Amino acid sequence: MQKEAEIRDPLILGNKSYHDITKDIARPVEGKANKYWWVLFSLSFTLFIWGVLSMAYTIGTGIGAWGLNKTVNWAWDITNFVWWIGIGHAGTLISAVLLLFRQKWRMSINRSAEAMTIFGVAQAALFPLIHMGRPWLAYYVFPIPNQFGSLWVNFNSPLLWDVFAISTYFSVSVVFWYIGLIPDFAMLRDRMSAKTAPMKKQLYSFLSFGWSGKAKHWQRFEEVSLVLAGLATPLVFSVHSIVSMDFATSVIPGWHTTIFPPYFVLGALFSGFAMVETLLIIMRKVVNLEAYITIKHIEYMNVIILLTGSLVGTAYITELFMAWYSGVEFEQYAFLNRATGPYWWAYAIMMTCNVLTPQLYWISSIRKSFVATFILSIFVNIGMWFERFVIIVTSLHRDFLPSSWSMFSPSFIDIGIYLGTIGFFFVLFLLYARTFPVIAQAELKTILKSSGSEYKNKK
Amino acid sequence: MSSKTTIYGIFDDEEILLSSVKEIRAKEIEIKEVYSPFPVHGLDKALGLKETRMAITAFIYGCIGISLAALMIYNIMIVDWAQNIGGKPNFTFYHNMPAFVPIMFECTVLFAAHLMSITYFIRCGLYPGGTSNSPDERTTDDKFLMEIEVEGDMTSVKNLLKKTGATEINEKEV
Description:
Oligomer: heterodimer
Order of helices and strands of chain B: EHEHHHHEHE
CATH topology of the largest domain in chain B: Alpha-Beta Plaits
Distance between the termini of chain B: 13 Å
Radius of gyration of chain B: 26 Å
Order of helices and strands of chain A: HHHHHHHHHHHHHHHHH
Shape of chain A: globular
Shape of chain B: rod-shaped
């Protein structure tokens, strides 16, 4: 049995038995959706439809439907792409890195965090796909033998690295998530009665792959989870490093910096944790999981946000210092223009939301408050979106030739696609919350005796 | 003729189960299977299960992944159609390799993770729509089940199960 110091706060509140955990996790799946769920779902679905129409319009007429111009030839699409990929990173960090560090608090949040990863990466993947203009030719990005002569992809290019990184990341995350889901689907299958809910029973039988919980299977399950965590850890760091190299390997002032890979990875974790908090603070209320997603979990995440936020702030200042120290006037101007040029407001939002407001987490009462955390997590989401906008648009809009300087403003279609992916993300997440076991209950049962409040009090 | 009977001992608690497994095995009674709702630490050792070799398979698959990636890139970038891209040396694989590291790494992870997962599914007999062979549906909820096959007299085994903490004992003729 696992041991844990008694002074540690419990991670499972209330008098819970193993059976109570089963019931609590199965309740959202077995019950009916409440009013809030339908309100959120219809809102997200409306946004999603707007997004689908905007995407169809883009594909029908071409990229000219966006606000891009010759100078700013990469803007909202890549900003949104990087933002969504970054959001995905927290899920892998929680489920893989925290597993390697044996952090027990990951267990009640890893399932949802990983769902967020998968849904977030799916949104991200949409952007390069529609930016191709002719998405039905998307298979050109894969190194497949073809009839066009020796027309191969270029393995020197970070854009191709991206293709491999993101497809590996997405597929490995799905498998990792699914292997953990199998025992929990089996739990749902065994609770469903073949008489009252035959369809559901069949569905969960299909999804649970015939899991029965044999000792040998559990032994393999644990080893496979550990190895997948070990593989996913370097993978998650590689993905955002490679995304940052899309910029860093170019020679545009403001992009051409070696600090990008660690800076992007930290920014990704920072924004990902903020999105996990936004989602979980709502979810624990909507599906009554207050006993499992406690203020302690939120506080741990806030500490990570404080750390990564401060490191991101350090990276911003390092960038400024390096621009000045380089003595290159283009580099110096790029950063001066970011902070004081026409997009100064975007830079100010980025600095405020990413560097200043997270510092409030030094105060214990803010760190331990659901309301404050919720508000600050939204701030971080906004700040991190603006970080990508600042890096991309302000580096491009004033290039080497002042006669081609211009500004960028998004079109109705740009906005539609962006909000559409937010809608799509929430549609997927809300459907997930009603049909999946939202907490890894099998794993959670292993820590009930060491971290449950009832057992802690007994000692 | 003595028929075989399967005895199912049901436990409420993993610690009681674990000590019971140890006692029963000390009496040299063979435990056919144990079903549990979550992984019980130390159960595999108590049951005398061999260590799993999943991690070794992952290593082998990873080696296959990196080799195939290197071979693919070598054929495409060096042999089939060498091109000067950004002045990167393209006449030998060795010189151009730094640019190939990211994709070789991704392919290593891709192969190791997916092929290990497939091996895991095959070795455990898990597939979409498979049927569970747990004798009791409560084993995915909160009960732990020990399965023992007995030939002939089974009262001693039943008593032992009861003594070591089983809360319920069922039997089935084979």
